[in-house]
Design a protein that fits this description.
Oligomer: single chain
Low-confidence stretches: 1-48
Order of helices and strands: EEEEEEEEEEHEHHHHHHHHHHH
Radius of gyration: 19 Å
Distance between the termini: 39 Å
Largest sheet: 9 strands, antiparallel
Structural class: alpha+beta
Number of strands: 11
Number of helices: 12
Mean pLDDT: 83
């Protein structure tokens, strides 16, 4: 358990642990990944800060565990970019090969540098934002809802509303992997390397159970699934389902569904800015526009239009809120 680790450090609103868990000597498995140019999604727009972000889906064999990969490169000179962070459903493993992101605490000019390799758990409310400046070269693994738990065996309640130094959480594999990824500048090549490593891990883990499959389906449906129906499909009572879901995902299923649905609506608006909030609310199964406004205030502290206005100048970071529709439609 992370709470019993030897030491950890809180930076801003995030925890960064300095100790470590075990790593796994795993048998090799065949990599079936293929990366063609049509699989790459370029999410960047030309801007003064000269940043480019790409996304690509995982291979079929890893799809139950890894949703996608992302890479952001470029420069931010003079004035730092500040990215507000709302509640978010995904677990991330982020490698920083240049200047690190900094944790920006609202109402303060103080910023703390994040670790070079960071594990980020699901977030249930708005927390500190990110401050970005200097040369940027970041590679991120976006896990499926139960993927990180399944691959690394970490109880996800220990990562909820927190970010940790990955050296502590995953173990001694991280420094070597960081160096190998840093020596490869290409996005497709980095994906191929990380997929080879992750596929080897599958030999020590069984397939997803019914709860993990339900969690992935919930994310794929943009949060539109009834918890009672998911429990029934999993052959569990609602209480049993919620307990196991919490251990694998880190957030109770009803709250997790709300967070997914809100992020899907936010992603929708960022991709189609001219689309009315009323239509977006209807498309994502909110009762009405005020229901969407209520959830936005709960997860960001602001109204939808005001929060989106903060994000207009940072298009390279819109993938923080990307959901299944972004991979399907771009």
């Amino acid at each position: 358990m992370l709470g019993s680790y030897e030491a950890y450090e809180r930076i801003g609103d995030f925890h960064f642990s300095r100790s470590r868990t075990r790593s796994y000597p795993l048998p090799a498995a065949r990599n079936s990944f293929g990366m063609g140019s049509r699989d790459l999604i370029d999410c960047s727009r030309r801007a003064a800060h000269m940043l480019q972000t790409k996304m690509a889906p995982s291979s079929g064999v890893l799809r139950p565990y890894v949703w996608a990969y992302g890479m952001t490169t470029g420069r931010v000179d003079s004035v730092p970019l500040v990215i507000p962070l709302p509640a978010r459903p995904k677990q991330l493993l982020t490698f920083s090969f240049a200047d690190p992101y900094c944790i920006h605490r609202p109402g303060s000019d103080h910023r703390d540098a994040s670790p070079r390799v960071t594990v980020v758990g699901p977030q249930t409310h708005a927390r500190a934002g990110l401050s970005v400046c200097g040369r940027i070269d970041n590679f991120t693994i976006h896990f499926q809802p139960s993927g990180f738990n399944r691959l690394f065996g970490i109880p996800m309640t220990e990562l909820t509303d927190a970010a940790y130094d990955a050296y502590a959480v995953i173990g001694p594999e991280i420094p070597r992997l960081e160096n190998e990824l840093g020596d490869i500048p290409g996005f497709a090549e980095r994906i191929q390397l990380i997929e080879e490593r992750l596929i080897r891990m599958l030999g020590c883990h069984g397939t997803l159970d019914a709860v993990g499959t339900a969690a992935n389906s919930l994310f794929a449906s943009n949060g539109i699934h009834r918890v009672s129906a998911m429990a029934t499909d999993s052959a569990l009572s609602p209480r049993q389902f919620e307990r196991r879901f919490l251990a694998q995902v880190g957030v109770p299923p009803k709250l997790y569904a709300r967070i997914i649905r809100f992020n899907a609506a936010l992603d929708h608006k960022l991709r189609w800015p001219s689309r009315a909030w009323s239509r977006i609310a209807n498309d994502h199964d909110f009762y009405d526009q005020m229901h969407l406004v209520h959830d936005c205030r709960a997860f960001t502290g602001e109204s939808p239009s005001r929060f989106v206005a903060h994000l207009e100048g940072v298009p390279a970071f819109h993938t923080f809120f990307a959901t299944e529709n972004r991979l399907r439609h771009e």
